[in-house]
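Design job #97: recover the sequence.
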């Protein structure tokens, strides 16, 4: 349960339920069948048009998904005093309503973990939770690697592991997150408005691999600034282009702005693997993507420098602005 005190109620953001133009004729979210020979072309198109797509025939065993979902459900059903024994997110740990260190809040509780250390989660049976996490993360990492190799192939980048090696590196700074959005009580669902579960933002990493139960809530922003709802599909995965991939493609792919709205009836559980590079990695446009005298849109920076700056930003900030080159007039 998300713990709610009276003054905290006032902190939540709402969005008006006005119908954006795109909501009348929403474009279909691209679906990529990873078992099809032309999937790499579909991936490139989806990354250019939406920065977002759904993946089917992904090869992640349903058994791993269900086991982690069941362990996560058990964890979030524990009394608050048990869950908080995991420790507050600094940046890893158990968090409730507060997202990040700079005052963002949402109708959500979560576990934020690094992928290269065994987590210390306070549950009745941490070994079983850990095994479920490890199986799931290993299978999702393999799928993400395959997707990044298809991206490299589709963009004719050599070698084909130029992107995937960053997240496969032993030192990779990847992050895993379990989000639980309890049903939001009527008192908070004021007339014709939605309560924000997770405010709008882009993900900082290369790509993020998201899977949720069958409860809706996720929305993505289109190029025209309108928002569309992503129909949930618990058998599939959703891929977000992150800020790092935007830079590595020199803006050809755009990181997708997304958010989650709370549901008044059902709880939403999501699990997200954020594929990050090693901290020392330079994030810059890939030389093979630069044509002729094309210039980098970004100043040089390492993932460490980007993260340090990201952690002093608010969720909705454009974290890349700080690293953009000022265009010469
Ligand atoms: C407000 C914040 C939370 C966040 C760190 C930040 O200062 C800005 C980026 C946020 C974000 C969004 C995507 C992921 O959920 C996340 C783990 C990440 O890498 O960047 C979160 C950070 C967080 O919750 O710590
Ligand atoms: O929980 C979700 O569905 C999305 C959350 C998200 O975007 C994030 O944790 O970065
Ligand atoms: Fe996100």
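Job complete. Output follows.
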């Amino acid at each position: 349960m998300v713990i709610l005190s009276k003054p905290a109620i006032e902190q939540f953001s709402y969005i008006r339920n006005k119908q954006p133009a795109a909501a009348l004729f929403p474009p279909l979210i691209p679906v990529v069948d990873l078992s099809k020979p032309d999937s790499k072309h579909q991936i490139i198109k989806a990354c250019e048009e939406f920065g977002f797509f759904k993946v089917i025939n992904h090869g992640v065993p349903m058994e791993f998904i269900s086991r982690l979902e069941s362990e996560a459900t058990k964890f979030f059903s524990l009394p608050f005093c048990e869950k908080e024994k995991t420790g507050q997110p600094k940046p890893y740990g158990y968090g409730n309503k507060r997202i990040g260190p700079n005052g963002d809040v949402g109708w959500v509780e979560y576990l934020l973990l690094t992928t290269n250390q065994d987590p210390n989660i306070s549950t009745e049976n941490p070994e079983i939770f850990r095994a479920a996490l490890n199986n799931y993360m290993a299978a999702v990492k393999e799928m993400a690697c395959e997707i990044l190799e298809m991206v490299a192939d589709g963009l004719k980048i050599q070698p084909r592991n130029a992107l995937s090696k960053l997240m496969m590196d032993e030192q990779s700074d990847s992050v895993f997150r379990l989000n639980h959005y309890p049903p939001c009580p009527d008192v908070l669902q004021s007339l014709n408005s939605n309560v924000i579960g997770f405010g709008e933002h882009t993900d900082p990493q290369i790509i993020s691999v998201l899977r949720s139960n069958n409860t809706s809530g996720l929305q993505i922003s289109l190029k025209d600034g309108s928002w569309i709802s992503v129909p949930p599909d618990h058998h599939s995965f959703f891929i977000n282009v992150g800020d790092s991939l935007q830079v590595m493609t020199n803006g050809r792919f755009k990181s997708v702005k997304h958010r989650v709205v709370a549901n008044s009836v059902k709880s939403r559980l999501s699990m997200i693997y954020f594929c990050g590079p090693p901290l020392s990695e330079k994030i810059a446009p890939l030389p093979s993507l630069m044509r002729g005298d094309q210039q980098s849109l970004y100043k040089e920076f390492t993932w460490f420098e980007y993260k340090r700056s990201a952690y002093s930003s608010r969720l909705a900030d454009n974290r890349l602005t700080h690293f953009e080159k000022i265009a010469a007039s």
